[in-house]
């Protein structure tokens, strides 16, 4: 029972962090960033030297964790901000559909860049192997990694909440997310807020990359896409642009997946995802605005 | 030199020309009403000064700087503070957070925090009701309270010129009187320069000051609100009788 709870929480953590990364950017610029998954993939491969060999040549992956974590977070934030400056800045005045297509294209560029450097073969690495030891809590044997995933996610969520609530920059971001042009008329710098949102979102992508890489031990250039899909669904169920909603829906999706994995009859288990998506459709039928409807659907300028 | 000067401003929304070759200027300390019927181009003009609506032609100067085509956040830094139509409070933020958003742009200056705190107290002194609701969600305030909040928010940026777009919109007449009472008191207190857009010229005649009357995207009358007030000229200009 406890095992199921922890499975649900750790899977939910991944989805929640992914959904948050998408919701942050949607909040300030009404962009559904489909390149987010590929930023995740990029962060994982930042651990390796570029090579098309089947064997992974570990580069940053060897660093002790206190250097490894900041390095990967910086990679994510840096790439994300670069995407903003090089691509999304040109589309500020464009309509949301155009921006979304641009993000698809950008995602493919990143993915094929990785393909070129690393080939499409999945590579296995052991990232932070010391985390795979089991620990015993209340009679259940859990991998230490699962525990760290949950704790790290909580720390990130609390930190982000404090940042948004207590700092001047956080206040400006919340104001801009609700009504961008009004915030600008009050002197809030558009570029700074948007770049801040991209940096945070990129760092969140990096956190997912670390957790996912450590969990699976396999690196695959497609890996971001699968999380991205679930995370995107979580942002929609949560109410696009609502950060709390995105986190809540992320955890709900994680829980739904894990519970269905356990409860469904054996024959139906391979179709688990179909049941999960079915549940998503049901939720959206009853609450098309999402679980927590976001404020500030005002046009941005 | 004038604080605000518009020369030959034209604003277009695709094919529609909302404002055509409008020029006027304002001096420091002046109170100016822009009135006129719906669609006269009053709001477009304000939004163009604020930098959120692009101009198709002409030039705008504020406090000795050309601001045509500048970003809204830079125009705000020159001392222009805007209270847009429909109020635009940040509904999910608290009352106090709403007031503080605009203080961030002075964060590079020394002692901005204590100045922001003083400014906050001054706004609370003018609008005690805001202090009572300081930690409540701004979206839950009544229309009149929200109007006071956005005026307070505009003052928090320490502006030289405050522009207010239709403060009367959607407010009961007695609430509206209160809003104006505070505005006039604030103006006397801080030597504020006020640019107010209203549909009706009645308020301008009551308060006094200068009045510009717009129709069809152009200025049709410009003069002292009280002397312009009672004549038939204003009615003719407002309704456009001379065209018929």
UniProtKB/TrEMBL annotation, chain B:
Q: Name one GO biological process term.
A: L-amino acid transport
- PROSITE patterns recorded: ABC_TRANSPORTER_1, ABC_TRANSPORTER_2
Q: What is this protein called?
A: ABC transporter ATP-binding protein
Q: Name one GO molecular function term.
A: branched-chain amino acid transmembrane transporter activity
The record's family statement is: Belongs to the ABC transporter superfamily.
User: What keywords appear on the UniProt entry?
Assistant: Amino-acid transport, ATP-binding, Nucleotide-binding, Transport
The record ties this protein, via InterPro entries, to: AAA+_ATPase, ABC_transporter-like_ATP-bd, ABC_transporter-like_CS, BCAA_Transport_ATP-bd_LivF, P-loop_NTPase
Q: Which residues form the ABC transporter domain?
A: 4-241
Gene3D superfamilies, per this entry?
A: P-loop containing nucleotide triphosphate hydrolases
Taxonomic lineage of the native organism:
Bacteria, Pseudomonadati, Pseudomonadota, Alphaproteobacteria, Hyphomicrobiales
């Amino acid at each position: 029972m406890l095992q199921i709870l922890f499975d649900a929480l750790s899977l939910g953590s991944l989805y929640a962090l992914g959904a948050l990364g998408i919701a942050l950017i949607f909040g300030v610029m009404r962009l559904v960033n489909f390149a987010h998954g590929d930023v995740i993939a990029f962060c994982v491969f930042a651990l390796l030297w570029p090579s098309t060999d089947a064997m992974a040549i570990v580069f940053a992956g060897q660093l002790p964790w206190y250097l490894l974590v900041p390095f990967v977070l910086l990679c994510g934030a840096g790439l994300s901000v670069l995407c903003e400056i090089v691509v999304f800045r040109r589309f500020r005045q464009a309509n949301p559909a155009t921006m979304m297509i641009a993000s698809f294209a950008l995602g493919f560029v990143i993915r094929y860049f990785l393909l070129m450097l690393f080939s499409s073969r999945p590579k296995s690495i052991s990232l932070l192997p010391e985390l795979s030891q089991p620990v015993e809590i209340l009679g259940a044997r859990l991998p230490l990694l699962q525990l760290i995933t949950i704790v790290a996610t909580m720390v990130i969520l609390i930190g982000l909440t404090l940042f948004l609530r207590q700092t001047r920059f956080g206040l400006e971001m919340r104001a801009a997310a609700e009504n961008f042009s009004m915030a600008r008329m009050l002197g809030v710098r558009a570029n700074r807020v948007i770049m801040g949102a991209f940096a945070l979102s990129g760092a969140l992508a990096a956190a997912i990359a670390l957790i996912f890489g450590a969990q699976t031990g396999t690196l695959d250039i497609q890996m971001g896409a699968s999380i991205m899909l679930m995370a995107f669904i979580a942002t929609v169920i949560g109410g696009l642009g609502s950060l709390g909603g995105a986190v809540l829906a992320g955890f709900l999706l994680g829980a739904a997946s894990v519970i269905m994995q356990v409860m469904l009859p054996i024959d139906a288990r391979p179709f688990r995802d179909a049941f999960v998506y079915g549940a998503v459709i049901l939720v959206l039928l009853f609450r098309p605005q999402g679980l927590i409807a976001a404020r500030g659907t005002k046009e941005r300028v | 030199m004038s604080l605000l000067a518009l020369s030959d401003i034209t604003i277009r929304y695709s094919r529609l020309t909302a404002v055509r070759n409008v020029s006027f200027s304002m001096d420091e300390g002046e109170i100016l009403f822009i009135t006129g019927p719906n669609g006269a181009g009053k709001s477009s003009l304000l939004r163009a000064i604020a930098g959120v609506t692009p101009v198709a032609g002409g030039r705008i100067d504020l406090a000795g700087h050309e601001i045509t085509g500048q970003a809204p956040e830079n125009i705000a830094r020159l001392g222009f503070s805007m209270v847009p139509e429909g109020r635009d409070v940040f509904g999910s933020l608290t009352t106090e957070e709403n007031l503080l958003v605009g203080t961030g742009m002075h964060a590079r200056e020394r002692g901005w925090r204590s100045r922001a705190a003083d400014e906050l107290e001054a706004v609370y002194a003018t609008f005690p009701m805001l202090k009572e609701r300081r930690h409540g969600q701004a979206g839950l305030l009544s229309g009149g309270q929200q109007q006071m909040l956005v005026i307070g928010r505009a003052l928090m940026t320490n502006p030289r010129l405050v522009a207010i777009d239709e403060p009367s919109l959607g407010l009961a007449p007695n609430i509206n009187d209160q809003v104006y009472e505070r505005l006039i008191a604030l103006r006397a207190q801080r030597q504020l320069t006020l640019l107010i857009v209203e549909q009706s010229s009645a308020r301008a005649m009551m308060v006094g000051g200068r009045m510009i009357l717009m129709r069809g995207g152009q200025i049709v009358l410009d003069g002292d609100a009280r002397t312009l007030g009672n004549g038939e000229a204003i009615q003719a200009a407002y309704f456009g009788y001379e065209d018929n």
